[in-house]
């Protein structure tokens, strides 16, 4: 019997993984994942990629790409020169690197409740002790027991779709500074904004001490390329580069080149405008279907950005029981409990609105409505 | 002052990383890295890649690619169905995943001395307690204190170029079986064979208990694509998939598609024949230059495969001092001490022969010869 690391005990059967396998069946309508719509992807224009990309490249990433990302970040007020930008093999990798750097057994990690489940899994694997982070009072409890890390997705959060106000962002940055808490801002949905939002500065732009800010091209270019990036304060950056080198040497260079072409394209703003218009319409269609089928059975707020509706079921309906029924009818969603760091119950479910075509969404939500009415009866 | 994980203490200044930065300067002749020659890379033929590759894909990898890899593995006698093949973002990632699964503070890891330095760094980061692995007597000491993991690169090892005999492979597999030691066979150089070698079955093909076998396309297709794979025994495989998902969700799909084209190309065997012929000639040219410039000053055996000469300096010359002198003259190599798990001294240096063009290799080795003569004087 092979002996494994102590951490392996936390690698329990993953209900999420099993669900992904179900979601891939063609007969299934999936609201469960976070898949963008293929209609929004940039093209596969690679025939002219330079041959030198086939060789090993720098761990930090391609210099031209790092410089372009640094420009974008400075537009957000983030203090990141190209020398402090690290290209990632998707922003999931940034979570792994940050956890390695900061989290070991018993380390305090403050997270929103609910929070991105695949981040929770990584922090838990490395031994995190979670505490809840209240955006109205982020430093609550930190006088007694400050966490090492505060992990937030303040812009169109996964799963809730919430966007923090400028004041809330400022308050979190100040709290992190005062209590020596490392800020980890995960910002993959920033560009998927469907309303004229209030100003939403990066939390990291208000932060003076130790911070990591990361973003993704999965939602604005294409997820199959696995490309993301992070920037970090000087005290953390060199460590993160070493951890990146140990993890995969460097990120695929062809993806980096393709994303650079996208960032430099003269029609980039128009393309992004088309992407957000596409998703705005999909969100609105989904919202209307929700009203038709779940009206009076659940509560939600249409998100101003991102890819998810966070829908709270009325009448104490058990989300996991609902999922089991829905699966029998080939409809999939993610129960809210998966997003609770401390294992608390949740009366909510997360519905992805970006992937399913309008007809499928209509059909899937009609089924959910029927099941909710049955359960309520 | 940010608080970091206990492991971070091991992320000390990396002399190797600093050297890589030097190696990229155009005026430098580098024997230090393990870069393949760009002349050997497969092409960048991607214009016809299917657009569906832009979407998220399965964590395990593309089904067609996994099936092709499983075929190759069964040709090596390894018991791996497609369902037990995991596509990696380069084989460095497999080391990270295996370490996460098996190694925590104080876990015993048996390694060759010397061994691949970037594997040592990862195992060390997770808290490995190293012991030496003698291929003539692999189970020595295991009755008292069996390690959890035995990590080996038995085919054209990095750094020594050694290829284990069939008997040695069989003995290691048996020892792992008897002592419940997980075998981790890292096999990136298998296809870079320049001599009619004796049979070299994968150690994993002799293993009945817990094993991980991994390979790379960095040396046979192109490293910039970051593509490798692993197969593992059933007790380990599911864990490794979960760890892969937590690390980067899945590997770049375009790279997977490109490598699949390469594996299916009708002229694959001929292309691989050209690659090995190219390297055989480069090795022989390098060997002749070594004789010209280091003859009488050092000892070495021309490797039957792989990318490195392991050169042992005579007369107690200090390799690090030699490197400092060489750097002043823009010549770079890797001192043997970097490859010693337990920090022991080494009178050897590792010279990569694949990257430098013959004229540069000649010039660089002449300089090394001059410096060795100066040091001996």
Strand content of chain A: 5-15%
DSSP strand tally of chain A: 13
Show unreliable segments of chain A.
none
Q: State the helix count of chain A.
A: 10
Distance between the termini of chain A: 50 Å
| Coarse shape of chain A | globular
Mean pLDDT score of chain A: 92
Main sheet strand line-up of chain A: 2-8-7-6-5-3-4
Query: Biggest interface: chains and residue counts?
Result: A-B, 77 and 77 residues
Q: Give helix % range of chain A.
A: 25-40%
Estimated radius of gyration of chain A: 21 Å
The ordered string of helix (H) and strand (E) elements of chain A is HEHEHEHEEHEEEHHHEEHEEEH
Query: What's the story with the biggest beta sheet of chain A?
Result: 7 strands, mixed
Structural class of chain A: alpha/beta
Oligomer: homodimer
Describe what this molecule looks like in 3D:
- 2 copies of one chain form a homodimer.
- Helix content of chain A is 37%, strand content 14%.
- The first copy, chain A, has 377 residues and is an alpha/beta fold.
- A 7-stranded mixed β-sheet of chain A has the order 2-8-7-6-5-3-4, sandwiched between helices. Chain A has a 4-stranded antiparallel β-sheet with strand order 9-10-13-12. In chain A, strands 1-11 form a two-stranded parallel sheet.
- In chain A, helix 3 runs parallel beside helix 4, helix 3 packs across helix 6 and helix 8 packs parallel to helix 10.
- Chain A starts with 14 loop residues before the first helix and ends with a helix.
Defining key terms:
7-stranded mixed β-sheet, globular, 10 helices, homodimer, 377 residues, alpha/beta, 4-stranded antiparallel β-sheet
């Amino acid at each position: 019997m092979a002996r494994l690391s102590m951490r392996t005990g936390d690698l329990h059967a993953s209900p999420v993984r099993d669900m992904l396998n179900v979601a891939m069946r063609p007969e299934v309508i999936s609201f469960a994942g976070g898949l963008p719509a293929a209609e929004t992807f940039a093209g596969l224009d690679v025939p002219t990629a330079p041959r030198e990309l086939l060789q090993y490249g720098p761990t930090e990433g391609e210099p031209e790409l790092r410089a372009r990302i640094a420009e974008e970040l400075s537009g957000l007020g983030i203090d990141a020169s190209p020398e402090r930008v690290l290209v990632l093999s998707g922003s999931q990798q940034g979570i792994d690197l940050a956890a390695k750097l900061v989290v070991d057994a018993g380390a305090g990690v403050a997270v929103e409740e609910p929070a991105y489940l695949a981040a929770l899994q990584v922090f838990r694997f490395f031994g995190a002790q979670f505490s809840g982070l209240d955006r109205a009072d982020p430093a609550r409890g930190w006088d007694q027991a400050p966490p090492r890390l505060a992990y937030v997705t303040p812009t169109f959060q996964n799963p809730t779709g919430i966007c923090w106000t400028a004041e809330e962002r400022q308050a979190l940055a100040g709290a992190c500074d005062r209590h020596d808490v490392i800020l980890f801002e995960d910002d993959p949905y920033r560009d998927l904004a469907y309303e004229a939002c209030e100003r939403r500065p990066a939390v990291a732009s208000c932060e003076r001490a130790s911070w990591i800010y990361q973003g993704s091209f999965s939602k604005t270019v294409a997820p199959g390329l696995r490309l993301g990036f992070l920037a970090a304060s000087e005290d953390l950056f060199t460590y993160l580069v070493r951890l990146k080198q140990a993890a995969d040497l460097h990120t695929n260079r062809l993806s980096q080149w393709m994303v650079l072409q996208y960032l430099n394209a003269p029609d980039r703003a128009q393309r992004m405008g088309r992407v957000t218009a596409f998703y705005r319409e999909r969100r609105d269609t989904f919202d209307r279907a929700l009203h038709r089928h779940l009206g009076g059975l659940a509560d939600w707020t249409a998100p101003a950005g991102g890819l998810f509706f966070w829908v709270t079921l009325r009448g104490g309906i058990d989300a996991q029981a609902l999922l089991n029924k829905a699966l029998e009818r080939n409809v999939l969603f993610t129960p809210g409990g998966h997003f609770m760091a401390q294992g608390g119950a949740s009366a909510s479910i997360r519905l992805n609105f970006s992937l399913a075509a309008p007809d499928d969404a209509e059909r899937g939500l009609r089924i959910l409505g029927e099941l909710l009415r049955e359960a309520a009866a």
